[in-house]
Amino acid sequence: MYKITPEDRQYVEEFRAQPVGPHSPGLQRILNAMRSAPQAGKYVLVATKPHREWTLGILSGKRGEPVQLTSHVFTDLNEAELYVFRARWKAMTGEEIN
Q: What confidence score (pLDDT) does residue 98 get?
């Protein structure tokens, strides 16, 4: 699996500008790594009101178990995607993105 490197920070601004895509090959490589990380503890978005509201969820990593919903609710998909990107970045690198 691809490991995020310090050089990959250059793609953070690209994601901020266009969280839903399309993405450059470099950013897509990072997103693929984030999406293929182990399921247990992974942050996900759950559409609680289709096309209007998303809630941050956490996967258990066990098939058949429901997603644990948090109190983080978003009404802007771009904001929600950026939140998950930042959380996954920190989980994979230990670094916070401001």
A: 81
All structural domains of the chain with their residue ranges: 6-93
3-state DSSP of 24-82 = CHHHHHHHHHHHCCCCCCCEEEEEEECCCEEEEEECCCCCCCCCEEEEEEECCHHHHHH
Q: What is this structure's pTM? A: 0.91
Cα–Cα distance measured from residue 20 to residue 96, given in angstroms and rounded to the nearest whole number:
21
Residues listed for the chain: 98
Residue 4 has pLDDT above 80, yes or no: yes
